[in-house]
Amino acid sequence: GYRVTDANTGLASTIDLFKLYDETKIGNSDPKIEISRALVSFNVNDISSSLKDKVSFDSGNFKCTLNLFDVQGTSVAPSDFTLEVYPLSRSFDEGRGQDLSTFNDLDSANFITASYRYGNSYLWNTSGSRAVGLLNSTDIDIIGSGTLAGTSSQVNLYKSQYFKNGTEDLSIDITNLVSASMCGLLPTFTGSLGFCIGFKTSEETDTSTRFVKRFASRHTRNPNLRPNITIEYDDSIVDYHKMFEFNSTGSIFLRTYEHNRPANVVYDASLRTITGSNSMLVRLTTGSFAFQVTASQHQKNGYFHTGIYSASFAMSSKDSSAVYVTSTTASLADLIYASGSVTFGEQWYDLYKNTRFYSGSLTINSPQNLVNLSQRDFRVSVKNVRSSYRRGSSAKIRLFLRDKNLAQEKFRKPIKLSSITIPEMYYRIKDADSNKVLIPFRKSDSTRSTQISFDDDGPFFNLPTAALPIGRAYTIEVMIVDRGVETILDTETRFRMDV
User: Fold this and answer.
1) Residues near 242 by Cβ (< 8 Å), separated by ≥ 6?
2) Which of 142, 340, 421, 426 would disulfide-bridge 243, Cβ 3.0–4.6 Å?
């Protein structure tokens, strides 16, 4: 036997991790250890550009997960081990090797050489890219710890995952590593953030053999199995204009445009615009009753969003303020009790009420109006799905939700039906042929990244076309959380992703 330290498998369809103890005899008769490690990198410039003006990298409102997918799936895979993921402190060449059997393809990167440029070889500081140390050290290959923004002490920058059965996928939260790289605190190379993956140190040096943990590489034919970083953040806007209830806090929104593009409201002759927190007034009136609350430019994920304003408030159904003063005074509580809902005039002003920007109405319902013990039979349809989308294109998917148990009245003239509004709805996207979930429901996750938005036209969400591999067909499912009951509905749609 012999050691292969200059072999490369950069173009192989799998990423193989193994550790062999005393399986071969090299030189003297002492037990020998043979190991492999994996190198992967991702272009974080693409992430940064796709999140521009959507989420602040240091806001704490998004999540990044490194995913590698198991393709061994048999009892041959080792079990009861831990993999460690270290950020790289230097760049590497992928190489063109493919031989995973005899390791006869020589190229860089390999165990000795990180890259080859202009006739020069650039070696790892320690073979196998294992020189570990502090962030910004010059004599290391991988970063073990460092001080990042917002911390006063050193923190571990490597990640680990335990594999009980050995056939699990790798799924590790690397949010702080990605955000640090996009903020310039962690080194990147031509916009790429690299990682070294291997068994934890004690498992590389013990007396056990672990052969072989096999992940799909980026060269696998199935695009759904290629390594990726998933980015999750909540960009939903839930407008309560059509589902506001007394005694519960809700939010109403005002969207403003200029030449069909989102634009902030201009409020004086100098063309100054309304921006920031508590910068508007919303006034609700009926009869002699008036309710006033401040509104703000809508802020989410660390950004104020252009052309979107919101106000959040609650109104009591027990308010005894007079609405009509006649021989018999009627209070707001009286009106709610009598009709179950009250329609208010809705006006949006500047803080000094010099200019009114919008006039409309808002109906607030009594919670008792919504008490219904019968189970609702929901049906959902997609109003505007296309047969195909270009990767990275903008696509707003409109949904229509109805209760099949409610009989619709007959009309002589065509009317526009309104979708049912449910504050808590989520979407997921599956491969239409394999049924593999590409984007799962995110109900319990802190990011709530698949929350469906609502406006005056009903539910909608922005289709994440950049996250879906091209050349495949997909379908959409919806989860509704209604009265504590989760219902999953198939939209029976099918669309493809094109280049």
Assistant:
1) 418, 421, 454, 456
2) 421
* 124/141 Cα distance (integer angstroms): 6
Question: What's the DSSP call for residue 464?
Answer: -
Beta strands in 272-412 (DSSP E): 280-286, 289-300, 303-313, 322-324, 330-331, 341-350, 356-365, 378-382, 388-390, 396-403
Containing H/E element for 428? strand 425-431
User: DSSP 3-state assignment of 358?
Assistant: strand
The closest of 442, 434, 488 to 69, measured between CA atoms, is 434
| 110 vs 98: CA distance, rounded Å | 13
CA–CA separation, 337 and 138 (whole Å): 73
| Residue 194: CB atoms within 10 Å | 22
Instruction: Decide: 440 and 428 in contact? Cβ < 8 Å.
Output: yes
Q: What's the CA gap between 275 and 231, in Å, rounded?
A: 28
CB-CB contact of 92 with 109 (8 Å) = yes
Per-residue pLDDT of the chain (499 residues; tens, 9 = 90+): 567 899 999 999 999 999 999 987 666 667 889 999 999 999 998 888 888 777 877 666 789 999 999 998 776 889 999 999 999 999 999 999 999 999 999 999 999 999 998 889 999 999 999 999 999 999 999 999 999 866 678 999 999 999 999 999 999 999 999 989 988 889 999 999 999 999 999 999 999 999 999 999 999 999 999 999 999 999 999 999 999 999 999 999 999 999 999 999 999 889 999 999 999 999 999 999 999 999 999 999 888 999 999 999 999 999 999 998 776 789 999 999 999 999 999 999 999 999 999 999 999 999 855 555 567 889 999 999 999 999 889 999 999 999 888 766 555 666 567 898 899 999 999 999 999 999 999 887 778 899 999 998 999 999 999 899 999 999 999 999 988 889 999 999 999 999 8
